[in-house]
Design goal:
CATH superfamily: MHCK/EF2 kinase
Order of helices and strands: HEEEEHHEEEEHHH
Mean pLDDT: 80
Structural class: alpha+beta
Number of strands: 8
Radius of gyration: 26 Å
CATH class: Alpha Beta
Strand content: 5-15%
Strand order of the largest sheet: 1-7-6-4
Oligomer: single chain
CATH architecture: Alpha-Beta Barrel
């Protein structure tokens, strides 16, 4: 429960900075908000800890599934969905690819129950609650939209393709063990009057 609060409220802080940057842009419009979650201690109760947050009323949509796959058309085609994808891209770029807010879901622009993926070593002392594979999948599958362009975010497609191309070039340049001839050096006889040098 404590980890859940920590993750959501950390993501909320990133969302506030994102909103501050996006709101300065003409035509960007409303920005997604991650609602706060509070930890409540109830010592007299059988379950002593609980979380409390604002009730969201309306159609609940998953804009960003945990594994980062671009499959939900409601997410990809709606304004809220595109802005959530842009928020993920923005966080990814701001943290140099070390952190990704994922599992974005909620009603309209109000989001809750989010997750965070970090590299194995974490990011600035923070470790997320999602697998590092979500970062890799996001990098491979994210498609920039007009909000990414408005914020001046760099395309992940070209970066990912460059990394894949470099990896494939390395593997092409490495000799294949099945094609390398195995030749053993011939035994060399030393002359009997050989005197080792002192250099």
């Amino acid at each position: 429960v404590i980890q859940e609060c920590y993750v959501q409220n950390t993501a909320r802080e990133y969302a506030k900075v994102y909103a501050a940057e996006a709101e300065l842009l003409e035509g960007f419009g409303e920005v997604p908000e991650i609602i706060p979650i509070f930890l409540v201690h109830r010592p007299a109760n059988n379950i002593p800890y609980a979380t409390v947050e604002e009730e969201l009323v309306g159609e609940f949509v998953k804009y960003s599934v945990r594994d980062g796959k671009e499959v939900n058309f409601l997410r990809r085609d709606s304004e809220a969905g595109q802005k959530c994808c842009t928020f993920q891209h923005w966080v990814y770029e701001k943290t140099s690819g070390s952190l990704l807010v994922t599992d974005l879901q909620g009603v309209g622009m109000k989001l809750t129950d989010v997750g965070i993926a970090t590299l194995a070593k974490g990011y600035k002392g923070f470790k997320g609650n999602c697998s590092i594979s979500f970062i890799e999948q996001f990098r491979a599958l994210h498609q920039c939209n007009r909000y990414c362009e408005m914020l001046g975010l760099k395309s992940l497609r070209s970066t990912h393709q460059k990394q894949r191309k470099a990896a494939s070039m390395k593997s092409k340049n490495l000799p294949n063990s099945s094609t390398v001839k195995k030749t053993l050096p011939k035994k060399v006889r030393e002359p009997r009057d050989f005197i080792p040098s002192e250099h």
